[in-house]
Each structure stands twice: as C-alpha cells, then as structure tokens.
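User: My collaborator sent over this chain with a note saying "see what the structure looks like." That's all I know about it. Can you take a look?
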Amino acid sequence: MIDPVVAEVTRGGMVESLHRGAWAVVGPGGRLLASAGSIDSPVFPRSAIKAFQCLPAVEAGVVEAFGMSDEEVALACASHNGEEEHVRVARSALAKAHVSEDLYECGPQWPSLTSALRDLVQSGGEALPVHNNCSGKHAFMLAFAMKLGVDPHNYTKRDHPVQQAIEKAMGEMCEYDLANTPCGIDGCSVPTWALPLRNLALGFQKFTSGECLSEVRAAACRRIIAAVRAHPFMVSGTKGFCTELMQAVPRAFVKVGAEGVYCAAVPHAGIGIAIKVDDGASRGAEVTVARVLADLDCWTNEEKSALEGMTRHTITNRRGTEVGEVRAV
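Assistant: Without extra context I'll predict from the sequence alone. Here is the result:
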C-alpha cells in the first residue's frame, strides 16, 4: 500500500515537497474510529511510547518509594532539550533513588536548544548523559532497578528485569506479541519494538481511558497523565512542539518519537492516536498529529482553534522573510 499524502510544503504559491504517512484513531471499546494508510504494518515508535516505558516503574511504586515529584514523572516521559531545568530534575530523580550518574547508559548528548548549548559551552561544561534527551526516562529505569532490588548495571539490555517488565507492559497495553516482532536498539541504547499504528493507538486508548486495565495499572496511567499535564515543559522544553501543544491544549497528551512518529491521547474522550510519516520528517509529523487531533469532535471552540493553528507552520528564509508553509493535508 502506498500511504496517502498527509502534509505538503509550499513555496511561491506551489507545492514543493510532499510527506506521505499513516495514522490511526482508536476510541472507547478499542474501536477504530478513523485511519489512513498502512496502519497494520509494524513501525518503531521510538520515544513516542516513553509513557509505557515508565509505566511499570510507576505501577511498582517507584514514585512512593523514592518520593518522586510530578516534575520527575513528567521528565520520565520526555525527549527534552537538555535545558538547565531538565538537568536539575533528572539529577533530583537520581539522588532520590540513590543512584550515581555514572550508571547512566544513555550516552552523552549536547543540549538541543541553541541557547542551552551556548550556555554550557561558555561555562566550560561538556556534554554528559544527564543532558541526553532521554535522561529522565533512564533515571526512572535506574530507580526501577533499585526498587526491584536488582543489579542496575546493563539495565538497557533486553534480558534485564527492567526491560523485561517494560516489554511485558507494552505488549499488554498494545495487545501485541513483542516476542515475535522486530526489536532494535534505540538512540539511547534501550530496546525498541516494532508495532502497528493500530495497536499503538489502542495502547494509548487504554492508557487514557483505563479500559481493560487493573486498578493498579489504571491508577499509574492517571498519575503519569496528571504529571505531564501539570508540567508540560518537562516533556520537551522551550519551543518544543509537544510542550507548546500541551500548554495550548492542556486536555491533550502528545509525545513525539524519532523518524516521524507521534502518539497522542485524549483523556476526556477516551481516544488514542498514533501516526507515522514515512520519510521520518518531524515537520510533516507535527502538522499531521495536530490535524488528526483538530478533526476530533471533542474540543471546545478555543481548543479546536489552538489545534487548527498548529496544522501549518510558516517557513522563513535566513532574513526572516516568509517564503512558504508546511501544512497538513
């Protein structure tokens, strides 16, 4: 199947480039409400499922055991800029779990926000694992290992108890056999499993509605959603699309993944969403997830207007002159 065009890029009044992709919307009862493209072909969701990766830790009582704050829970779901606040919260989570930064296995990364990068360089600092955009997730994985009473070394390996718990939870949430699907290594060294968009959307529908979940798991899902809702800045940061969308529409839950993936949830409507832009372009994925969200009949006029405003991005040149736009189709 050739996926449909989901976004286009214009210049000089004509379409210059196209982005193809697929998306699935699942509603109450696990019913597929709408879709486009190849939603049954497995894709790597990458960081879009960080909420599922921290779910077993929250479910196991890591938050209560170590007194984790909502900021720290939100950072566990983040692909952040590496700003000072993100680093502070990651280090706070590690300290509460009595874990050293030396145990991080996510690898060093320079801050992705230009101003944060400049400040770090000017201060004589260097790129560290705590600046990695996944450092919050890894802090929770290390805390989870401590809560389980297992050796935290090699916590990123697929056969480690932490990753085994994550694999089990993800499989149950998405109703998909992860033991028999391609498994790769993500940018931060943890396993990443390939799942169809239909199943990813189903997983987020259950995550946001609590349907078919035990009360313990449903409570853990609610805790994660509440933390992200309270601290959307932690999820990406300054100028981050996830942060800006959730600040503008607090009733939405969205999370980017690498290579053109987004997953989203609408708690008040019990809806889960998953999209994938075929060429991996974030510019196409951003306007597409905004378009799919905006088309749902569950928003106030103000919320819908805010989402509509995110379905297109102006393109400017080096002088700041407007030359075109990226827009959802």
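A starting point for your reply to your collaborator: The chain has a mean pLDDT of 97.
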